[in-house]
Design a protein that fits this description.
Oligomer: single chain
Number of domains: 2
Shape: rod-shaped
Radius of gyration: 38 Å
Structural class: mainly alpha
Helix content: 55-70%
Strand content: under 5%
Number of strands: 0
Largest sheet: none
Number of helices: 5
Length: 180
């Protein structure tokens, strides 16, 4: 089947149509890019408005809590170092004293110091007793003078809040009375 040759006029029409389609495609591409840019700007604007709502005063309590968590982590590291210094011998060696933790962080707003009620006091004494009878302290409430009080007193001394052996012993005995 023979096709008739295209004349110059038909070629010009095809060329104009192709260029028109190309321009239309390019225009749609530009519109899509502009929409994407505007959408991205709107999302970014909403995000920035959300950030602006958090003022310095609302962030400050969070900073205080982070500082308190850092202090707690330092204290936990200190306890681990103290336990490692204690080792298998059951007592602290002079050279193996752990470094004291950093100074205490003041309590966060809302944390208040209050007097202990009888039940709270007994609960705390039970906790102390439970910790004291466990390794590494191995407190024996029936012993006249065990090593547990000296070990705990050394740990409090290393923590920067010295308590004498006798005071520790007195409270351990009190804890043993409550726990039994």
């Amino acid at each position: 089947m023979d096709r008739p040759p295209l004349d110059a006029r038909a070629l010009w029409v095809l060329l104009v149509l192709a260029v028109g389609l190309l321009v239309l495609s390019l225009a749609l591409f530009v519109v899509a890019l502009d929409y994407r840019r505007r959408h991205s700007e709107a999302v970014l604007r909403r995000y920035m408005e959300g950030l602006r709502r958090y003022t310095v005063s609302s962030i400050e309590p969070l900073r205080e809590r982070v500082a308190a968590l850092d202090a707690a982590q330092a204290e936990a590291a200190f306890v681990e170092a103290s336990l490692a210094a204690l080792g298998d011998s059951g007592s602290f060696s002079g050279a193996a004293q752990a470094e004291a933790p950093p100074a205490e962080v003041p309590p966060a707003p809302g944390d208040e110091v209050k007097e202990l009620k009888t039940r709270e006091r007994e609960t705390l004494l039970k906790i102390i007793y439970g910790m004291a009878i466990a390794p590494p302290y191995k407190f024996d409430p029936d012993a006249k003078r065990g090593e547990a009080a000296a070990i705990i007193a050394s740990a409090t001394d290393a923590a920067g809040c010295s308590v004498s052996d006798d005071t520790v012993r007195k409270w351990l005995k009190e804890a043993a009375k409550v726990a039994r």
